[in-house]
Amino acid sequence: MQNIIRAILLRHKNKRIALSYMKRILKDDGINLLADTEWQKQFICTIRYLIQKGVLVPLKNARPLTGYGGLPDRYTIRRDLIAEKEAPLSAEHKNELFSLPAPMSIDYYAHHADTYRRDRDAIIRIRDLIDGDDHEVLTVNERSYEIFGDEKAIDEPQHAAVDGSAVLRNLGLILADIRAKKVFEPFFYIEKGFGAEQGKTKRNVLIVENKDTFWTFQRAVIAGEFDGINLIIYGEGNAIQKKFEYIETVGGTPDDLYFYFGDIDREGIAIFNRLQARYPDYGIKPATSFYTAVLRKAGYRNARPLRTEQNRGQIPLSPFIDGFDEESRAAIEWIITEERYLPQEVLTAVDLRRMKALGLSETF
């Protein structure tokens, strides 16, 4: 990324340059920072490095861009510093570099002397860690603070003073090499027989988008007013995209049966589609009986217009819609096309008791 940005700066005719211009040139060259978080991280790291080196000098009236780690939006270019050649590594630094133990790779730093000098302290700490006898595995943030003095350097470098993930990448290392592991943010859940049935049968897991409906289901299940659900997870809207990884911690496996129940609207469908795509091994499906109950109780033509803060525009209905019968599919398509929605709160505890009485409490 550094070489690409340097080339952009050298080609630029004016003394001043905007971050938006650099992003546009990168996009024209096939690097879309909005679509690729890894490229975005490298871009932020490179701009920070060029600011540190004095190649880019932020204008006094430049605005910080929150989406890019607070980087200023406009700069003066110091072209006389761009072409400055790196001083070669000293004999001491060469010996250090070439004696790094496996699995540390020297390829990148052997050709980037300035970067080695900048990252040297962290590299030495990583070397000592790999050579040491301490086999304790720490969390990513704990190890990050130990190596880089910043707990966010590895996992959230855009919010850190140093890009620790770039250092690991330059050394060809993964988290296991530095004896670090990611921990997952827990979700809130209620279980009934989930642990007791482990290894005996396929257990039913229901992910509920909204808080009120989660509490309605958990009360009904615990009180025996609704059967067939062994674990209820509060999805917390989009938060479930990351939090679902916690499923292993509570004993969930891909052999269990997973169902999702959310609002019938653009965002609810998009959350499901993203969740299923991110965790394909778990075979997550829509809880079609609950969605159908909402449609029949409220009447799809009584769906309300979307709130002003909700996103509009085309969204893919598949795979969410694929498992519904023809009548429900048509109703859902109408709601989305007409930019309307039905909240899952249409379904109440009374409805769950009725579903149980009709023998529908174990068919999601």
What's the topology here?
Layout: H1 2-11, E1 16-18, H2 19-28, H3 37-52, E2 56-58, E3 64-65, E4 71-72, E5 74-77, H4 79-82, H5 91-98, H6 107-110, H7 113-131, E6 138-139, H8 140-148, H9 164-170, E7 180-181, E8 188-191, E9 204-208, H10 211-222, E10 231-234, H11 240-243, E11 257-261, H12 266-278, E12 285-286, H13 288-298, E13 304-305, H14 326-337, E14 340-341, H15 349-357
Parallel strand pairs: 6-7, 9-10, 9-11, 11-12
Antiparallel strand pairs: 1-5, 2-5, 3-4, 8-10, 13-14
Protein name: Wadjet protein JetD C-terminal domain-containing protein
Domain Wadjet protein JetD C-terminal: 202-281
Pfam families: JetD_C
Description:
This protein is α/β, with parallel strands linked by helices. It folds into 3 domains: 2-82; 91-181, no CATH class; 188-357. 41% of the residues lie in helices and 12% in strands. It has 15 helices and 14 strands. Strands 8-10-9-11-12 form a 5-stranded mixed sheet, with helices on one face. Strands 1-5-2 form a 3-stranded antiparallel sheet. The longest helix has 19 residues, at 113-131. It is flat and about 80 Å long. It starts with a helix and ends in a 7-residue tail after the last helix.
Taking strands numbered 1, 2, ... along the chain, how are they ordered across the largest sheet?
8-10-9-11-12
Give the overall pLDDT as a whole number.
Answer: 89
**What is the multimeric organization of the chains shown?**
single chain
Using the alpha-carbon principal axes, give the shape: flat
Cα distance spanning the termini: 49 Å
Roughly how much helix do the residues carry, as a percent range? 40-55%
| Helix and strand element order | HEHHEEEEHHHHEHHEEEHEHEHEHEHEH
Count up the domains.
Answer: 3
Strand-residue fraction?
A: 5-15%
**Protein structure class:** alpha/beta
Q: What count of helical segments does DSSP give?
A: 15
Largest sheet: 5 strands, mixed
Rg is: 27 Å
Secondary structure tally: strands: 14
Low-pLDDT runs of 5+ residues are: none
Organism: Methanofollis liminatans DSM 4140
Protein name: Wadjet protein JetD C-terminal domain-containing protein
InterPro entries: JetD_C (IPR024534)
Pfam families: JetD_C
